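Lab meeting, action items carried over

1. Structure of the two-component assembly. Owner: GW. Status: complete.
Input record:
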Amino acid sequence: MSIESVKFDKLVSCSVCHYLEKLGTSRCRRCHSKLHKRQPDSIQETMAYLIVAMILYIPANVYPIMVTSVFGKAEESTIIGGVVQFIEMGSYFVAGVIFTASIIIPVAKIAALIWLCYSATRKEEFNPQEQTIVYRLTEFIGKWSMIDVFVVSISAALIQLEGLMTIKSGIAANAFSGVVIATMISAHKFDIRLIWDKVRVK
Amino acid sequence: MSSPSNNYAVCHECDLTFELPAEVGDYVKIQCPRCKHKVITGHPNPMNTGLSIAFTSVLVLFASLSFSFLSFSSLGKSQSMTIVDISIQLYKDGFVFLSGMLPVFVVILPLIYLAALTLILLCVKFNRKTSTALYLGRLMHFISPWIMVEVFFLGVIVTLIKVISIVDISFGISFWAYALFTILFTYLSSLIDTHRLWHWIDQVKR
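Predicted assembly:
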C-alpha cells in the first residue's frame, strides 16, 4: 500500500477499534460501530458546541463561583474575584492555578478550536504538523479546567463550621462545568484528519 | 512482546497508511511517520500487569470511599469528610446536576472502565468467550475521555494549599487510598491502547 491519505483509497478506519474496512460498509466488522470516512458535519458540530461554551462562559464569570460566610457574614466571589483575592493574600500558586485553569485554558481552547475550524475550511494549507500539535494540546488540556469546580466543591464539603466559617458553591459552578463539558465535546467532534486532507489536494 | 493484529495501521489523526512491525519491543513506541501520533507502545507482559493493576485499583478505590478523606480542627471545633460528603454537600446546596456529575466523573466511570477491562482480561486469561466483549470495548472507548481522576486529585491538592493557612488539616486513610488510585489508574490508562485492547477483544468475542 502506498503512503497516501486513506480518504482517497477505498478504505475506512473505524474510529473505535481502528480496524480497516472497505469503503461503503456501514458497520465495522470487528466492533459493530458505525463507520464514517470523516466524522459527519465535524466543523458544524464543533462550532455549535463552541458557541454553547462561549455563551455559558458569560454567567460563569459574572455570577459568583464561591460564597464564603465568616461569622454569618456572606461574601460572594467570582472566578476573577477569587484570583485577585488569592493574590492579595499572597497565595500566588493557588491564584496562578485558578487563573490558568479557569481563564487561560478555556479561552485558549475555544480560540484554538475556532482557528482549527477556520483553517480546515480554507483552501490554503497551514502548517499541518503545528495544527496537529495544537489539536492534541487542546484535547489533552480540556478536562483540566474542571479543577476549579472540584476545588470549590471540596472546600464546600470541608469547611462547614456553622456560625464560624462555611463555604458554599456559587451558581457559576454549574455554568462553568457546562463550559468545560461543551469544549470537551467540541474538541472530540473535530476531525483532525480534515487538516491533513489538504496536504494531498494541492 | 506484543504483536499487532493487522500488518498495516492507518494513523487516526492524519490518515497515513503505514506498515507495522511484526513484533514490538518492550517499551518501544511506534509512531505515525508523518504526524508522530503514538500508535502502539510495547510492553513485556501487558495482560498480567493490566489485570493486577485493575484489581488493585478497584480495591483501593473502594477503600478511598469508605474512610475519612480529610479532617481538620480549628478553634476547638473539628470536621471530618469523606469523598461522598463532597457530593452530598453539593446536593444540599442545591447543585443537583453537579452532585450527580462529580461522582460519575471521578468514581463511577473509572469503576465501569476497570470492571470492563477486568472482564475482558479474565476471559483472555482463562480462554473463555463472551458475547459482551464488543459492548465492553465500545463502552470503554466512549467513557475514557470523561474520566477525571487526576484532575480531581490535583483539585484536592490545590484545595489543601488554599486552606492550609487557615486551618490544621490532617489526611485520612481515604486520601492516601485515592492518591494511590490516581497513580495506578493513570499508569493503567497509558498501558491500554486501542490496538492492544481490541487484539484482546478479538480473542474473546463470540
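2. GW to write a short summary for the group page. Key points so far: The first strand of chain B starts at residue 8 and ends at 10. The two ends of chain B are 25 Å apart (CA to CA).
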